[in-house]
Design goal:
This protein has 6 helices and no strands. It is mainly alpha-helical. α2 (about 60-75) runs antiparallel to α6 (about 135-150). It is elongated, with a radius of gyration of 35 Å. The termini are far apart.
């Protein structure tokens, strides 16, 4: 195979300009001095992956704060707030949420859904369910709802 080179109109490269451009890109092209053989090289420490940071979602936070409120102030039946300051489940949700926000609504829906899972589908509202069960049964539903919110990352 024969390759023929034709004359082109390319301008020859100015070698000094070419070298100056590379000095600008790599200002210190000299290699680092080698380590003496007598110096021990420190062992590489493997990087451990940091555990992923998980943020608490607004529903989980509302449920957790409401259960903490019940633990602190007490749980009540048959009234939103009793004379000693204890609250029913709805009262605790309202106290934790601060307003009837989306987190309040979603936390209430999740709590009622968990109450229906544990105590039957007949419950139409949290107050009726709250007033018909013991403190231990109510707490069990709260804890399960918090776990569900956690696993759902909401």
């Amino acid at each position: 195979m024969n390759t023929y080179t034709q004359k082109t109109d390319f301008t020859p490269v100015d070698q000094d300009l070419y070298a100056a451009a590379f000095r600008l890109l790599d200002p210190d092209p000299t290699p680092a001095p080698a380590r003496p053989a007598a110096v021990a090289v420190p062992a590489q420490v493997p990087l451990t992956a940091a555990a992923p940071v998980r943020l608490t979602g607004p529903v989980e936070k509302t449920l957790t704060d409401a259960l903490t409120f019940l633990d602190t102030h007490g749980w009540a039946r048959y009234s939103l707030i009793n004379s000693e300051g204890a609250r029913c489940s709805i009262g605790a949700l309202r106290a934790a949420a601060g307003s009837r926000s989306a987190a309040y609504r979603d936390a209430g829906n999740l709590l009622l859904d968990e109450a229906r899972r544990q105590h039957g589908k007949k419950w139409e509202a949290i107050p009726a369910w709250n007033d018909s069960h013991s403190g231990a049964q109510v707490r069990s539903v709260w804890e399960a709802a918090i776990r569900r919110a956690h696993h759902m990352n909401i």
